[in-house]
Amino acid sequence: MRKNGLRKKWLYGKKAVLLIVLSFVVVNFQLQAQNSGKVDELFKAAQTSYSKANYSKTIDLCNQILAENPDLVGVEMLLANVYSKQKNSDLELKHLYKAMKLNSHPYIKWRIGEVYLSRGNYSEALNYYNIYSNYKNISEKRRMELACKRASCIFNIQQVKNVANNSNLPAETYWPVPAAGGKKLLFEKDNTTANPKQADRFISEFDTLTGGVFEPVNDSLFLSADEAEIPEHQKIIFFTGSNRLDGFGDADIYFSRFSDGKWSNPVNAGNTINTKYYESQPFFTADNKYLYFVSNRPGSAGGKDIWRAELLQMPETGAPVWKTPENLSEINSSGNDISPFYYAKKQQLYFASNSQLGLGGYDVFMTAVDDAGVLSTPENVGAPVNTDADEIGVVISPISDTAFFSLARDKGEGGLEIFSYNYVRGLHTQPPFYIYFELFDSKTNLPVISGIEVADQSYNPAKVKYYAVGADGKLMLNLKANHTYTFTVSEKGYMVYTRNMTLGKSNSVSDHFEMKIGLTPIEVGSLVNLYNIYFETNSYALLPNSESELNRVVGFLNSNKSLKVEIQGHTDSSGNPEANLKLSRERAKSVVDFLVKKGIASNRLKYSGYGDTKPIANNDTEEGRKQNRRTTIKIVEK
Q: Which residues are bridge partners to 559 per DSSP?
């Protein structure tokens, strides 16, 4: 009777008394329902199922209670705990917000803050932590924890703010270059009215930069040079000139000397540096030792590589004398490695690459350079500098310690903007999660050369990128730790493959996660399980987050118009077998109805429900039950 009395008090009590349930912090809130023995028994069963990690049964029982008693905050909190265990933060938040509408207990605010913190939404997390901090009777231990979490939110918010968009600069600005001893910033802007399209140059004082005060650079040198790189010492500058009469190729490196208060006419840097191929983006180090530049000449590892030439002699007149340029194979990849910048204070070389282990597109990397010129293994500078967009052209002002870089953030059309952050104060970067893919034919075990669609579901809408595997079917990616991703492979001749996965904490290249994907050839009888099709609990109504997966099925069927398929519905063993059989059939029909609405001919589709009769995993564990709850597509005619 004592235990039963506590349970009823949890469901119906007038006082807000905290109870410890499951791992289990659950709260006894004021509810607005009348006492019911049936509800009490159902809730007892739900708690028991939860304690045994049978979450699907817990959800089923909770929904039975809410169907007749929709205002029971304790049930909403139990559902929030279930989805927390399943790492489904969307549904966890949904039920926490429902609970908050029913009761104003501070614990709910704490929980919402915890969810937002886990998602990296620091502003929302801080908001709810601040609300929670206003309540009295918080234990000393919890106050200490709260202080740490609030400080963490503030710190991370500031780190993001440290990467400041100089938004008052004109659109399509890029290639920032410190000039005048680091007191000014040169940058380029696309002149879309010119034919052919060209880049115009502007200059701004640092203290007027964010105010949008800048002026064009009218010096004929800069107007005739493309992508000028102007180092601090400025006794000699190297820059790129395109399609000049004295050039060796379409883009060559030129130099000009500063003497008697003016710059000399541009001179080609010579055939040691320039070839008939592409040479661009030079950076001459402040110690007059090395010229770093970009070229696609023979000997390059990828499309465009970073090369380095050592200066042998700098005569007063005439061209500098160089050693034969060397390919920096320690840092170059199979793709493009561009925009070198050497930061003398720290002996670091910064560059951008689109084929190293990055977060997507071009990322910024850094490598240490010792006194002998030997380079260390390059490191991704991490978030928030790097994103899944393109980041290029990092430079650091020698006097303000401000780092500038160009970024196509949230542009969609590839437009670049200039961003900055304080180098000395630094950034709290987020170490990545390394994941290794291997694609192969499930029958022959031979490599499959295809692409992988990677959708970061931690954003709304999801951010999608495509990556190609190598000739061996292998690919290593550097993704964001603790984010949820959907991986999709759609290769001609094979069944579509999808997998939803929440990545863990950051790891290392040597301790990477492996995902070996055996693709199933399209044959009569071939089938594939789809886990990203979701339904309302105990319902055949499709949830909105199923649409991307269903659209992949539409694309697969449109690409294979001769196929006829069976859509199969499956459940785990929880609940009544007959009810499961009926529900699985109705869910399969819902999928077919969606496909027909999207233009797939109904005579190509059939549907069947198998309930729990075809398990692929053990129903005694939650993970096994999760695998058994699935939609399957099977080829019945080719």
A: none
Query: Is residue 92 predicted with pLDDT exceeding 80?
Result: yes
Q: Which CATH number fits domain 2-162: 1.20.1050.10, 1.25.40.10, 3.10.450.350, 3.40.50.300?
A: 1.25.40.10
d(CA 449, CA 307): 30
Residue 94 scores a pLDDT above 50: yes
Question: What is the mean predicted confidence (pLDDT) over 619-635?
Answer: 90
Per-residue pLDDT at 134: 85
Q: Please give the residue that has the higher pLDDT: either 297 or 101.
A: 297
Residue with the bigger pLDDT between 29 and 45: it is 45
What ranges make up the beta strands (E) of 362-460?
363-368, 379-380, 391-396, 402-407, 417-422, 432-441, 451-456
Strand-pairing partners, residue 76, are none
Let me know: does 98 contact 72? Beta carbons within 8 Å.
no
Count Cβ neighbours within 10 Å for each residue of 263-277 and write b for 16 or more, e otherwise: beebebbbeebbbeb
**What residues are paired with 174 via a beta bridge?**
188
Number of separate helices (H) and strands (E) present in the chain: 13, 35
The pLDDT of 487-497, averaged and rounded, is 90
pTM over 0.85: no
CA atoms within 13 A on the CB side of 291: 33
Residues 285, 369: Cα–Cα separation, whole Å? 12
Superfamily of domain covering 522-638: OmpA-like domain (3.30.1330.60)
CA distance 630 to 571: 7
CATH of 430-521 among 2.60.40.1120, 3.40.630.30, 2.60.120.10, 3.40.50.620? 2.60.40.1120
- Lowest-confidence region among 220-229, 367-376, 539-548: 220-229
Q: CA 538 → CA 72, 209, 541, 618, 629, distances in Å? A: 19, 58, 9, 21, 12
The pLDDT of residue 604 is 95
The answer to whether the CB of 553 falls within 8 A of the CB of 547 is no
Topology given in CATH for the domain delimited by 171-422: Neuraminidase (2.120.10)
Residue 489's H or E segment, with its range, is strand 484-489
Please give the residue that has the higher pLDDT: either 462 or 353.
353
Does the structure show a pLDDT above 60 at 302? yes
In the block, residue with structure tokens 């400080």: 151
Cα 20 from chain centre: 37
Domain ranges (residues) in the chain: 2-162, 171-422, 430-521, 522-638
